[in-house]
């Protein structure tokens, strides 16, 4: 009987430790990102949880996905559910375009376009990519120039 209890206790310790590890890492990441220590992450603090190459659009998309109660801040429970800010997938081209279009005019200027690019991209690289896509050379990207095949700015219409 003693021989059976000892391996079971050891197994319980290892299983319990394995389950606590990821949660502790996520909690530590939350605590490091929570600059003002209010136990919530706002959009700026959320950026600290994203990878260095994540675009502003990707971070915003994941923030919106993680914000289950739509209060524009992420609590520890929401952060854990988002697997430390990594869940939520990636926006499709239309979602990325709409998130980047800050002035909601249906076009992206170079600054708005930069929000769709990896945050580590130098400005010169972003401008080259913008120029390559701007086929009519009007300094604005239309949805089709951005790569969206079918764009309907008014949802619900064919």
Give an overview of the whole structure.
By secondary structure, the chain is mainly alpha-helical. The chain folds into two domains: 20-81, Orthogonal Bundle (Recoverin, domain 1), CATH 1.10.238.10; 93-146, EF-hand (Recoverin, domain 1, Orthogonal Bundle), CATH 1.10.238. It contains eight helices and two strands. It has helices at 2-33, 43-47, 56-66, 76-81, 93-100, 110-114, 123-133, 143-146; strands spanning 40-41, 74-75. A two-stranded antiparallel ribbon has the order 1-2. Helix 3 (56-66) packs across helix 5. The longest helix is centred in the N-terminal third of the chain and has 32 residues, at 2-33. The radius of gyration is 22 Å and the shape is elongated.
List the keywords.
single chain; 158 residues; mainly alpha; Recoverin, domain 1; 2 domains; two-stranded antiparallel ribbon; elongated; EF_hand_dom; signal; EF_Hand_1_Ca_BS; EF-hand domain-containing protein
The tally of helices reads 8
CATH class (first level) name of the largest domain: Mainly Alpha
CATH topology of the largest domain: Recoverin, domain 1
- What is the total number of structural domains? 2
Strands ordered across the widest β-sheet: 1-2
Q: Structural class of the secondary structure composition?
A: mainly alpha
CATH superfamily of the largest domain: EF-hand
The low-pLDDT segments are 4-18
Dominant shape:
elongated
Q: Beta-strand percentage?
A: under 5%
Helix share, percent: 40-55%
Mean pLDDT: 86
Task: Write down how many β-strands occur, each being a DSSP E stretch of 2 or more residues.
Answer: 2
Query: In this structure, how is the largest beta sheet organized?
Result: 2 strands, antiparallel
CATH architecture of the largest domain: Orthogonal Bundle
Please provide the ordered H/E string of secondary-structure elements: HEHHEHHHHH
- End-to-end span in angstroms? 72 Å
Radius of gyration: 22 Å
């Amino acid at each position: 009987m003693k021989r059976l209890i000892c391996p079971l206790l050891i197994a319980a310790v290892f299983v319990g430790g394995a389950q606590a590890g990821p949660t502790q890492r996520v909690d530590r990441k939350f605590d490091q990102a929570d600059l003002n220590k209010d136990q919530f992450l706002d959009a700026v603090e959320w950026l600290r949880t994203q990878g260095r190459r994540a675009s502003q659009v990707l971070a915003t998309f994941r923030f919106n996905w993680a914000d289950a109660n739509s209060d524009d801040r992420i609590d520890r429970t929401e952060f854990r559910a988002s697997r430390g800010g990594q869940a939520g997938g990636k926006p499709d081209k239309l979602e990325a375009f709409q998130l980047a279009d800050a002035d909601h005019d249906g076009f992206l200027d170079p600054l708005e376009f930069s929000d769709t690019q990896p945050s580590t991209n130098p400005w010169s690289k972003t401008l080259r990519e913008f120029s390559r896509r701007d086929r009519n050379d009007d300094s604005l990207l239309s949805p089709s120039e951005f790569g969206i095949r079918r764009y309907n700015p008014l949802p619900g219409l064919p």
